[in-house]
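Hey all, quick one. A colleague (J.T.) asked me to put the iron/sulfur cluster job into the tracker so the inputs and the C-alpha cells live in one place instead of scattered across chat threads. No bug as far as I know, just bookkeeping. Sequence used:
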Amino acid sequence: MPKVTIDNKTYDVAEGRNLLEAILDNKLELPYFCWHPELGSVGSCRLCAVKQYRDEDDKQGRLVTSCMMPATDGARISIADPEAAEFRRSVIEWLMINHPHDCPVCDEGGECHLQDMTVMTGHAHRRYRGRKRTFTNQNLGPFIHHEMNRCIQCYRCVRFYREYAGGEDLGVFASKNHVYFGRFEEGALELPFAGNLVEVCPTGVFTDKTLHRHFTRKWDLQSAPSICTHCGLGCNTLPASRYGTLRRVTSRYNSEVNGYWLCDRGRFGYEYVNGNDRLLAPASRTDDGAPDDWETSTAAIAGILSEARANGTLAAVGSPRASLESNFVLREIVGAERFNPGLADEERRIVTRFLEFLESTSVRCASLRDANSVDVALVLGADVTSEAPLLDLAMTQACRNAGCRLTLTSLRRGRLSKFAADDLHLDPDQAARFGAAIVATLRGTPEPPEALRDSLPPGTHDRVRDTAAALSAARRPLVIAGTSARHRGVLEAAIQVAQALVSTSGGSKEPLVSLALPEPNTLGVTMLDAGEGPSLENLLSAIESGKVSTLIVCENDLFRRSGNPERLANALAKLETLIVLDQLETSTVEGADWTLPVAAAAESSGTFVSSEGRAQRYFQVKAAAGEARTSWRVLRDLLVDSQQEGSEAALEWTATHHVTAALAAAHSSLRQVVEIAPPGDFRLLQQRIPRLSIRSSGRNAMPDMTDVRQHVQPPEDTDTPFAFSMEGYQGRGPTSLLPRYWSPGWNSSEAVNRFQIEVGGPLHGGDPGLRLIEPGDIRTGSDGAGLQTVSVAAVPTGKLEAVLMLCGISEVFGSEETSRRAPAVAESMPPAYMLLNPDTAVSLGVVEDGRYDLRFGIDEEMRELSLTVRIDETLPIHVAGLPAGYPETAWWQAPCWATVEITGQVEQREPEKEQP
Amino acid sequence: MTEITPVLTANIEPGREPLDRDGYEQAGGYAAVRKALGEMSPDQLLELVKESNLRGRGGAGFPTGMKWGFVPQGPDSPTPKYLIANGDEMEPGTFKDRMLIHGDPHQLIEGIILSAYAVRAPVGYIFLRPEYQRGADLLRHAIAEAEAAGYIGKNILGSGFDFELHTHVSAGRYICGEETALMNALEGRRPNPRSRPPYPAISGLFGKPTIVQNIETLSCVPHIVNNGAKWFRRLGLGEDAGTKLYCVSGKVRRPGVYELPIGVTLRELVFEHCGGMRDGLEFKAAIPGGAATMLMSPEELDTRLDFTSLDKAKNRLGTAGVIVIDDRTCIVGISLNLQSFFARESCGWCTPCREGISWIVDVLRDLEEGRGEPGDAELLLREMKMIGPNAFCALAMGAEGPMVSALEKYPEEFETHISSGGCPYEHPPALPPNGSGEQGRNLTPRAAW
Ligand SMILES: Cc1cc2nc3c(=O)[nH]c(=O)nc-3n(C[C@H](O)[C@H](O)[C@H](O)COP(=O)(O)O)c2cc1C
Ligand code: SF4
Ligand code: SF4
Ligand code: SF4
Ligand code: FES
C-alpha cells in the first residue's frame, strides 16, 4: 500500500489513487471542481493545486494539480504551503471575475459547491474592476433550469452528459472566457438522465425546475432516506419536503445500486404526491349521511370483512408498489389462498419463474454495479432505457469502459443501439426465438440457418453465431430480459442462456442475469405470495360466479393489470363491497364502495425488494396528505377489528418494525429483512436522528410574524428513528439512516465524499440494503435439463395485410403509473400513439402525425379508438406499437395478433409550409 | 555580414510558382528519399537526425531525433503510428512555414516521407491553418505528383515502406497549433489540449504513437540526409545546428523572412540584414520568437538568436519571429495588443488562462485609457506569474513571457501610464515611410501566398 506524506504526516493510500483522492480518502480538505469520482480527472479548473516535493531535501517544491498526479509511494506534498494556498485562492478570484454573485436569488445557494470552495480557499475580496460577461439562457424543458452566467467552466456537465451518459444534445460552444454550456438551440434536453446535471454541476447553472416552482433552501428541507418507486431497480433517494409538500428528490449514494445517479423519472416523478388528485379522507359510496372518518369507516368495513370471511366470499389484491409490510398484513386478513399479489397474470408467471430460477442456480442476479463492468451483454426483448432506466446508464458504462459487446433485441432502435455490436429489431416472440437459437449454439447443437428463416429476419443466423461466440468467450456475461413485453418466452430464453453458460463453462464462468421490473416491490410481493394465491383470471371468475363478493384492493389499479376493462368493470360492479386503499384517483377507485386514503412511500416507512433481490428500507419523510394513513396500519386495524383468528398478535403491531419482524418470521425467504436497517425505536444517545438540518429556519418561520404558536404538530412517529425536528443526535448514524449529506464546510451534494471509505467507493459502515438471494454453490450439476422449454406463441400463417402484432412500447415518461401524474413528467410524455414501420403505414394508407379512428380486432373482440400515428423505420413491419401503461391502451395486455382497420381520419395534419 | 548559401530556401524564388516535381528533382530533390529508403534502415536515419542536433522549429526547440526515439517500436508496439506536419502557424510575427509550404512544397513532402520512414509511420497529415488554402492546393497537387512518381504509396521505391499523406485545413485557432489540441482537432473534437503524460509519441492521434513536427523542422531533414549530420551541425554559428528562417517585423527598413545560419546576433539581424531601423526611429525592444517570448532590451542586442543562447538568457528562440519595437511604440500598448491575442485565443479549458489573461487585458486597457491605479503594475506581475506556469498548457506560459519581461524591463512605461492618467504616446504613432528596396535576401512572400 503506497504511503504518501502530506504536510509532514504519512498516510496510507490505496493503489491507483491520484493525490486528490488520496487527500480526500484520508478526510483531509482540499478544494476541487472539475474532478469527480465517476467522471475522472481532467485538470481544467486547477483548484486542487498542492506543493509537491521531490524528496525530503527538496524544500522548494513545485505546484501540481493533485487530481492529475498519481499518489505514488513516497510522494511528498503539502496542502498548507502558502504558495499553494495563495494559488487556490487566486483560482477562485479568477472564477469570480465573471460570476454574478447572485447567491440570494440562486437556487443553488446553501448547497453550492462554489460557495463551499470559496470559503475553503479563503477568497473574500475581488479586485477585478471591469464589466462582467453575460449570457443568454435557454429553456431546457420541464426538468432543468438554465442560468449560464453562474458557470465556472468545470466541464462536468458535458462530461457527464456526453461522455458518461452518451447524450448528444448538450454541448460546449465558443471558446476563451465565453465558453457556453447548453444546447445548439433551445429545447427540452433529450437525455433521460439530465436531472443529474443538477447535482453534477457545482454551481447554480443547472438547477431543478420542479423545485424552483415551490422553492425552499436546502437547510429548510426535511428529509429521510427513501427508495425510488418509479421502477424496480430500487435506486436510493432523498426526498425532501417543507410545509407539507414534497419539494424535490435527490440521489442517495449507494455504491452497489445507483451510485451518484437517478433517472429523470425517479427524480421528477415525485410530484404526484402533491397532486390535486390525492385521496384525502375516507369515503364511502353508501349515502347514509354518516361522517366518513377513520373510526366509523374502519368499524363498518371490519364488520363487512368478518361477515364476508364467514361466508367465504372475501378476497384481496395486493400490490407491487406497496410495501412488504402492507402486502403482508393484507394477506393475513384474507389468507394466502385468497390473496392475489396484484400483478398481471403473465407478469406474475414471469416473475415467479425468475424467482424460482434464482433460488436454484449459481447465476447471480446482477446489481447495477455489476452491470457497470460486464464484458458481454445480451438484452432479450426489453427496452432497457424505459423499463430500467439506470440499467441503461450502467450498460453505457460497460460499453464505454469495459468494452462490453452488446447484443440488443428490442422492438426498435433505442438509446443503447449506438453501442451495440448487434442491434436486432424483433417482436417478443422473435426475441425469445433468437434466445433459443443462442442456447442451442452454446450447447453445441446450433440450428441450421434454414431453421431460423421462417421466424426471424434474414441474416439473424450470423447474429446468433456471433453473440453466442462472444458469450462463450466472455469473462462476465450478462443476460437481461424485460417484463414489459409480457412474454414468458423471453425470460425463459434468458434463463436458459445463463444456465447454458454455467454448464458449458464447467462452472468457471459467472454469468449474471437481470430482469427489468416495472415497480418497486414486484419481486418482494412475489416472494411473499410464493405462488400460493389465485390468479387474477381465477379471481375474476370467482367474482363473476359470485364466489367472491367482497374485495379489498391495496394500492393497485386493477385496470392496469387486466387486459379486458369491460369484463373487469362488470366484475367489480358485481361485487357487494369493493374496498380500495390508494393515494390517487384511479379507475379502480372510481368503482369503490369504500375508498381509504393511504400514504405514499415518502409519507410512510416500509420495505421494498428491488429487481436485484435487494431488500431496502424507506422512511417517512413528511406527514401524509390529508387524513391518509400508512396502508399497513389501516389494514392492521381492519385485521384486528374484524377479529380474524390469530389476529391477537396484530394488537402488538404498533410500529413498522413489528410488522417487518412478523413477516420475516412467517416467510423464510424474507427472514433477513429485519436486518436491513435499525428498528423504529433505535436511538443514538437516547436521541432520534433529526430530519431537519441544524440550520433549519424552524417550523414556525413562515407564520411567525403573526403568531408564534405551533399550529401543526409533527406527526407521531413510532416507525422510524427519525425526528420531525432539527433537534436530536447530531453525529452520524448507520448508513441506512442518513437523512442528508452534510459535513462542516461541505454543504453541497459533494459532501458525500465525507461519508465514503474511499471517495467513489462504499459508504462507511457499508452500503444500505441486503441481497436476499445469493447464487447457490451449485456450480455443476444442474445443466438446465429440468428447465421448461421456450414457449413461442404460434404465428398465424397466411397473414392478412392488416393483421399486425400489437406490442407494448415502453416509454421512460408515460408508462409508469405514478410518475405520469407528476406535472413535469406529464409534460415530457408523448401523447398516446400507434407506432408503425413506414412501409406498414403506406400499406395502411396513413401518414406520420395523422390522427385516425382505428378499429382493432383481437380474436372476436373489437376495440375502437383514435390515435396519432407515429413512424419508426426500425420497427418490424408486422408490428403495431402501442404505448404501455397508458389508460388509452389499457384494454390490451400481452403481444398478440390483431386486425387493424382505419375507419376514419380525425383531423388533417397541418399542410407543410412552403419553403420560400 | 554573415553570408550563407541558402539551404531551405534554395528553390524559393519570390514571385515564381514553386518548382514542380521535375523541377524539384532536377534541383536534386527526392535524392534523399532514394538514398534513405534505398540504403538506410529507419533506425540509421533516426541516428543520423539525432547526430545532426536538429531541434524543433515550432517553438519548443525539442531535439527532433530524441523525440523520434520515444516512439515504441517492435512487433508488439501499437500501430499505426502517425506523423503530423504542424502548419498551423498562428504565432504572431511568424510567417516562415508559409514560405516553405508555398515556396517549396516538394521539399516539405520529402522531409515528411523521410521522417515517417524513420518512425515507421504509414500515415501522415499536414495540418494547415485555414488562411493557407492556396498552400493546401499546392500541397495536394505536389502530393499527387509524388504519388505518381512512387514516392508516396505502397512499397515506396521497392523499400517495403508504405506511406499515405493527407492535407487537413483546420477551422483555425491559435491553440490548434499546440500538438495535443491539434490532434483533438484532427479527430474532430474541440481543440482543447490533452494532458501529458501520455506523450503523443506514446499515445497521440486516435490513441496511437504520433510525432508532431513543425514544417521547417521537417524541411531540414532531406538536407541532413543529403549532406550529413556533421555538415548540418557546422551550419550553425553558435552551439545549435542548421540554418534558421528568421521572420522580422516591426519598423525596420526591410522586414521579411531571412534564412541565416542559426545563431546570428539580434544586432546583426536587425542592423545588417534588415538594414536597421527606419529613419528617425530608435530600437527599443525586440521579441525574438513570436508573441510568446520575452522582450529583449537594447543591452541584449549581441545575444545570439539560437536555442542555447536564449535559454541561457532566460528567454526562448520560439519561432524566431522577431518583432522589433521602436521608440515611438508604447510598451503598454504592445502588451495590450499581445495579451488581447492570448486572451482571445485561450481555448477556455483552464481557469488561469481563460479568466486570468482577460483580467490582464482589462487592467492593461485601464492603463491605456487612463483608468490605471497605483499598484496595477504589481498586480499584473503577480497575476501573470501565477497564471503562466500553472495553466494547463503552454499558451498561458507564452502570455507570461512578454508581459513579465515588459514589466521587469520597462517598468517606467507602466508608471507613467498611471501617473499621467493614460498613454503618453501618440496614437497612432507618426511613423517615417518604409526604407528603400536595398538588396538582402529578403523573401517577403507575395501577396498571393
Ligand atoms: C499555443 C501553442 C501554439 C503552437 N502553435 C504551433 C504552430 O503553429 N506550429 C508549430 O509547429 N508548433 C506550434 N506549437 C508547438 C507544438 O506544440 C509542437 O511543440 C511543435 O509542433 C513540435 O514540432 P517541432 O519539434 O518540430 O517544433 C505551439 C505550441 C503552443 C503551446
Ligand atoms: S454549467 Fe456547471 S457543470 Fe457545466 S461547466 Fe458550468 S459550472 Fe461546470
Ligand atoms: S432507474 Fe428506476 S429506481 Fe432508479 S431512479 Fe429511475 S425509476 Fe427510480
Ligand atoms: S492554458 Fe489556455 S489554451 Fe491552454 S488549456 Fe488552458 S485555457 Fe486552454
Ligand atoms: S479538480 Fe484538479 S484540476 Fe480541477
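Adding what we noticed when we looked at it: Chain A has five domains: 3-96, 106-117+127-274, 283-341+533-754, 347-519, 803-907. Residues A 20, 32-35, 43-48, 65, 67 surround FE2/S2 (inorganic) cluster (ligand 5) (CB under 6 Å).
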